[in-house]
Structures are given as C-alpha cells and as structure tokens.
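tool_call: predict_structure(chain=1)
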Amino acid sequence: MVSDIASIAKEFRKLCESSQDEIVPSDFQLEVSSPGTDRELKTFRDYLWNEDRFLKLFIKDGEKNTNIEGKLIKAYEDKLIMLIDEEEKEIMNENILKAKIKIKF
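tool_result:
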C-alpha cells in the first residue's frame, strides 16, 4: 500500500540523516508513487477493485456538477455506496462524470 511505502521512505530518510557515514548524498530525493493512482476509474471492475478506498468523484447533480470525496463501501453494476461525512450515500453510475482514487496519508 502507498501509505506503507511512504512510512518506509520516512524511516529511510531519518536513518540517512542520523548516520555518521553518508549512506546517500545529502541532496538525494526519494519519490514514492503508485502507478495508476491518477488513472480514471471507468468500469465496474475498477470500482470493485477499489472498494474500501477513498475516491474523488465529479458527478452530475441536477443542473450543476459537484465534486465529492468519500470512501467506497460497495460497488454494484449500476451504483456505488459511498461513506461521505460519516453517512452512507448511494451514487448512481450514470451520474458519475469522472472518478479517481484519493490517496490519504
């Protein structure tokens, strides 16, 4: 998981900074990323694989469009069940304009 890798990177940086011997150059930068996290979710399978993760959705909300963020509880073929502000909400897939994973540290 990305948060585990980020924790390892922080500990590695601390080790490097506290070491008397220069393990790596002082201007060394370690970047942590996860391929595909910026990829848009489009299919039922994408949502299914990302249950229990935080998502950022751009949805049709009547005459306007809205951004919402929350935890994907359950994915169905036609809708998502999201936990938004401590409340479960049903989002119909037909109203989703764009969806991405939201990484939380």
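agent: The chain has two helices and five strands. Proceeding to next step.
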